[in-house]
Specification:
The structure is a homodimer.
Chain A lengths: L11 E4 L8 H12 L5 H10 L1 H9 L8 H12 L10 H8 L11 H9 L3 E6 L3 H11 L5 E4 H4 L6 H10 L7 E5 L2 H9 L3 E5 L21 E3 L2 H7 L3
Parallel strand pairs in A: 1-2, 1-4, 2-3, 4-5, 5-6
Helix pairs in contact in A: 1-2, 6-11
Amino acid sequence: MAAPADLAGVQVLAFDIFGTVVDWHGSIVRELQELYPEVDGDAFARAWRAGYQPAMARVRSGELGWTRIDELHRLILDQILPPFGLAHLDEAARRHLNRVWHRLDPWPDSVAGLTRLKARYTLCTLSNGNLGLLTNMAKRAGLPWDCVLSAEVFRAYKPDPATYLGVANVFDLAPAQVMLVAAHHDDLAGARACGLRTAYIERPLEFGAGHPKEVAPRPGNDLHCASLLALADRLGC
Amino acid sequence: MAAPADLAGVQVLAFDIFGTVVDWHGSIVRELQELYPEVDGDAFARAWRAGYQPAMARVRSGELGWTRIDELHRLILDQILPPFGLAHLDEAARRHLNRVWHRLDPWPDSVAGLTRLKARYTLCTLSNGNLGLLTNMAKRAGLPWDCVLSAEVFRAYKPDPATYLGVANVFDLAPAQVMLVAAHHDDLAGARACGLRTAYIERPLEFGAGHPKEVAPRPGNDLHCASLLALADRLGC
């Protein structure tokens, strides 16, 4: 099966990462369970992630200068350790725990789906995660990117247009020749406003089985898929 | 065999590309022979490459604003077409020929050597070539990078220290934990001055069989190897 005719011009697929390609919640819960079984891993993972948008907002507003996600994750971590009873962690333990974001596991369909898509498309990341984080994650998890792109390259966080248009510019393509693949509607809306094509991926368990996410189709996206394997099916890969 | 003890801390290998990993001269000669057999491909390839350093010098001096290699290659191409009897090429033909730099073939040892090295090290490019060029090249040639880095990311051309130190910074490593692999002594000297480890790769045919390059060992580099397979041997991969 070929790609839908109106998507025939797409050459590059750019992927959101946290939640779309890798399971941040489950990975952090599993690591907490192993290292600090007395802590409520589910609540800890959600608290850490909940600090993410506010931390990036401090960069966007100029309150913080350009700061990589590794550093933002660490700022949030230092704030949530005391209420979770982990204020005693020393510097080495904090550094190790903060790098859990480099060790996130992919969703079960991610590697197989990306491998099929790679045969026809150029695959890149487009994440607010930093280049080192994304590279370490890909190497550990076997994610077969052709190119690792990040907010770090464009010095702007999604949904800043500089990120979406930056991908098209890197590959010397028109925006409509790039498709953003993401599990988050705000990210997809940002890409769409820049002229990119968009594919929504359902990840109902992004926040854990206890907090199912609403994933019903919404208008506006070119594709709505249950997984990256389903995306490969829809694109004829 | 393990890596030499003094190189045990190296975690990232950063590769120069043009001449070190891919054979720009031979690839351009082959493409010219096919497209424009009346042209002296050897002289054409060397003339094109000879314009490379002067073009980057115009960016470094500020005469040109930040300009990607694709654009610099095109500026040079437009200058050399008339003396080689190709002034009649139209825009589409010029665009296609300019993209030959995206279609360069690897040296025969490159893919096998990189594949062995990748099992132990994180492999990235560190080229003055732009991200799109390097990604397209890697996809076509099967170069298994973990991460594509470029002067484009750091907005500075090698041998600017921002490029060598930029790689260490991306991976949150000390400079001595990064090794530059290159076939050019000026590039290696720039890296060494920043505290990186260095490996020289002999590429005696970089400028073609008619113009053999002097490749005798010089002091200063940590390793001197005949190929990327020899580098994998030396690093115990």
